[in-house]
Amino acid sequence: MTKSAVPSAKGLERLVEALRVLPGVGPRSAQRMAYHLLQHDRAGAGQLAQALSQALETVQRCAKCNNFSEDEVCSLCCSPRRDASLLCVVETPADLAMVEQTVSYSGMYFVLMGRLSPLDGVGPRDIGLDRLQARVAEGEVREVILATNFTNEGEATAHYIAEMLRARGIRVSRIARGVPLGGELEYVDAGTLSQALLERREI
Amino acid sequence: MTKSAVPSAKGLERLVEALRVLPGVGPRSAQRMAYHLLQHDRAGAGQLAQALSQALETVQRCAKCNNFSEDEVCSLCCSPRRDASLLCVVETPADLAMVEQTVSYSGMYFVLMGRLSPLDGVGPRDIGLDRLQARVAEGEVREVILATNFTNEGEATAHYIAEMLRARGIRVSRIARGVPLGGELEYVDAGTLSQALLERREI
To answer: Residue A22 and residue B7: Cβ atoms within 8 Å?
Structure first.
């Protein structure tokens, strides 16, 4: 959208501009959001301003797992009920939440907060692989489970971490690929199906 | 998304919740936005918090046209170069900006900040029709141009305003319907085409 020639409120313009820091929000949706907030939800806008300031102040990274946390070490890393010999590596906090929702994993985590992406200038240090290595070097971890995405970048990241840790004699595994639960072969892509054939298990 | 069982940062949870005041933002995008801000753009998040607070403080409604303004009466309504005998009624500030971009209108505006929608409980007073009537009653306005949308609700709103003002002897017009510039008849919907036939002009 071309910049409006209308003499408009400065504060409104600044708000529209500021809303564009949100991912996936272009000039038009930013304008729509600003109008909505000022017209229909001033209370919500106030709460949003407060929540932003508060989160910026309190939310940091957990020193152990790298996930968002308000404490030096997050409650999951502090929990005595988790198996400290298992370390699951995920790309994002959302992925960690997904694994937790399965209620089938009781080990620890390491959150990369990204993935290797040389084209975007994201190298091993940017996703905390030096810290991951240090964590594993402490000796408690027996097995590292790589749960990065099955995208090109996620696969490359898993491969890189596997090489790095195997050199130190750590057991490294990758979560299984295959046809999803409830998946119909007719609608599964060829790559997934060929992988499922290749990694077939005796029953 | 079901609520995550992960013991997570309170400030983060509150931020995700607060982001949902934005139109079109569900739980998943709110989470994505919060992660993005905390991870990649803390400066932008701070600026957004500030812009929100500032806009809430400074942006009010213009006493004359009802548009957003930081002054009692906005600069457009104050301008001596605008024709005060013409009043264009639009639904939203975005519509006003679109009309201004045509650079073919030099009258004044009245922004409804909505449209009549009885099913949603939006009546004449909610879109400021009492104020519109008072504005017209001042006597300066000769013609009211209705530029509400050509949706059912926009049409009903235009109809209602036309009835209301005609009773007071004000000249009321509606912007033209028809085939859009560059429009090909083959791809224009039947309703638009039949309207264009009905409202044909001699050349």
So the answer is: no
